[in-house]
Amino acid sequence: MSFVDQYKNKLISAADAAKMVKSGDWVDYGWCLGHSFIVDKAIAERASELTDVKFRGGVTMWMPEVMKVEDAAERFTWNSWHCTGVDRKIIDMGCGFYSPMRYSELPGFYRYCVEPIAVAVCQVTPMDKHGYFNFGPQASHQMATFDNAKIKIVEVNENMPRCLGGTEVAIHVSQVDYIVEGPNPPIAQLGAAAPNEVDQRVAQLIVEEIPNGACLQLGIGGMPNAIGMMIAESDLKDLGVHTEMYVDAYVDMADNGKINGSKKNIDKGRQTYAFAAGTQKLYDYINDNPEMMSATVDYTNDPRVIGQLDNFMSINNAVEVDLFGQVSAESSGFRQISGTGGQLDFVMGAYYSKGGKSFICLSSAYGKSESMQSRIVPTLAPGTIATDTRTTTHWLVTEYGKINLKGMNTWQRAEALISIAHPDFREQLIKDAEKMKIWRRSNKR
């Protein structure tokens, strides 16, 4: 049977696809830009018939229709591998939960750990002449998701970029159970906020540490974006990319001739990534681009792989850091803000790299002047998650300076961290350090 005939035989309506979901099922929506769109709407229309349906997703870019139904918390549960503002809203609604993980392990979770999936559905590109549906900019763990699913459904979107590169970037028509042709919604866009003065100062401190030929990983947020913008305007050259998330800043660097991957020890000449989200210029750039290498996250985020790349520069955000060097990048008290994601993977991988450096960047304080709070704290508050343990933390950077914690004992760490704290909080932090017995009498004041 030809690929076209297989396609026709498997083509069904979104309403028929939704009928395959039963009460008590686990349903997987894929990841980020690939989340189900039209089948999600059809399942929501069946809400009154369903109870205890458990959905999985992550890096949620829009509110799922199943979470908009009137009694969502009584019928559905949303389980997210990584929290965005949308995921936080769902958690606040009382029907959402965060699923802790190191992102590099996620394909293995699906293949060996999590409950069997009744229905897996995600958006894909139209079928090519070889019978393949490309996963678009989220190869990440999608094939592993389908490997664990009893029913595999692809939702065709003509606007999805076709992303080339590594293994498991596409699924063949013979491997899927059903195909749904949707309304071809535009791909969700993620803009970056303009960097402020603090972002620019932190970026300056980090960029001066980056050598020519370095390989880059940028996290999402104002500071990594500012670093990318500054690199794009710098004299740096021959840079490489090996990252979990591909963002607009890389496109700017590439357009300015900063990226060619010529010094990479592996995947030479390729920009390697697990998923991507940004503006239309990013989607246009990665579409059918042979320079790009879309890969599974158990490759991109494996510290053993990262460590093979010389001069690897990992740059990520944090919410707060304590005087022991523990970094929280995902929660504030009991409130889940983001997720571990790949930060710990890259912190460890960069340290394994010859000449590599892991930078955790954050503003020294937040809030308005009358209610300003320090991001460098004596200890993490109860409920706050340590994303990076004190033994893995390498470089820390605020607008007041940069420090390398590797090799430091507790009093040296306290002194170094207080030196990059906001000046208004330094005296109190010294008193706190004294109480915790991590401050020497001869320390600088």
From TrEMBL:
It comes from Sporotomaculum syntrophicum. The active site is at residue 244. The keyword Transferase applies. GO terms for molecular function: acetate CoA-transferase activity. It is an enzyme of class 2 (transferase). GO terms for biological process: acetate metabolic process; acetyl-CoA metabolic process; butyrate biosynthetic process. This is Butyryl-CoA:acetate CoA-transferase. Coenzyme A-transferase that converts butyryl-CoA to butyrate. CoA binds at residues 219-223, 319, 342. Signal peptide: none annotated. Residues 5-188 form the Acetyl-CoA hydrolase/transferase N-terminal domain. Residues 278-433 form the Acetyl-CoA hydrolase/transferase C-terminal domain. Keywords: Fatty acid metabolism, Lipid metabolism, Transferase. HAMAP family: But_acet_CoA_trans, But_CoA_trans. Its EC number is 2.8.3.-. Pathway: Lipid metabolism; butanoate metabolism. Belongs to the acetyl-CoA hydrolase/transferase family. Butyryl-CoA CoA-transferase subfamily. It catalyses: butanoate + acetyl-CoA = butanoyl-CoA + acetate.
